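Progress note, sequence design subtask.
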């Protein structure tokens, strides 16, 4: 280990040969890509040498193999995480639709306005006026009762009847379209 830390070429070649083979055997089971296996192996050997040269290496020489193995595990996790994070962009894949913008909404809203207007025109004047006051003009129920000269309990009955007539006209219109 001291010779590796000092930069001895023969020790470096022996280290790379011995641990390179062990790392290859370990990595070929865990990684599919030969390029990724080679990258992890080279990065592991480089990091181990850098740690030894900085002087913060392994205190017990008998644990050197475990140290190299741990460095290899860390490098493998890092590279695999990066590999998954930055997948290559396929130019032929369709972009997902933008769900924040509903391009059909203005058309649907306009169709809905026309349909509501048609149905309201077909209702009796009193039903049309009550529904318009409550749902379109959003007037206060006391104000509607004052305008029509009715009690609040009877307004509830009139609204119910107007909604029933509205439903009937709507369903008749749907039957005519089919």
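Output:
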């Amino acid at each position: 280990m001291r010779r590796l830390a000092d930069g001895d070429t023969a020790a470096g070649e022996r280290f790379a040969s011995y641990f390179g083979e062990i790392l290859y055997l370990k990595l070929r089971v865990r990684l599919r890509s030969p390029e990724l296996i080679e990258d992890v192996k080279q990065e592991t050997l480089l990091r181990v040498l850098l740690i030894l040269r900085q002087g913060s290496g392994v205190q017990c020489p008998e644990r050197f193999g475990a140290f190299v193995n741990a460095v290899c595990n860390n490098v493998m996790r890092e590279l695999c995480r990066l590999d998954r994070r930055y997948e290559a962009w396929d130019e032929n894949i369709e972009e997902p639709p933008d769900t924040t913008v509903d391009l059909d909404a203005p058309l649907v809203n306009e169709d809905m306005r026309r349909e509501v207007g048609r149905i309201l025109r077909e209702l009796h004047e009193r039903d049309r006026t009550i529904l318009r006051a409550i749902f379109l003009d959003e007037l206060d129920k006391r104000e509607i009762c004052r305008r029509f000269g009715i009690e609040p309990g009877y307004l509830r009955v009139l609204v119910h009847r107007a909604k029933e007539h509205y439903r009937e006209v709507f369903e008749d219109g749907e039957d005519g379209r089919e």
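Residues 152-177 form the longest helix (26 residues). Work on this subtask will continue into the next period as scheduled.
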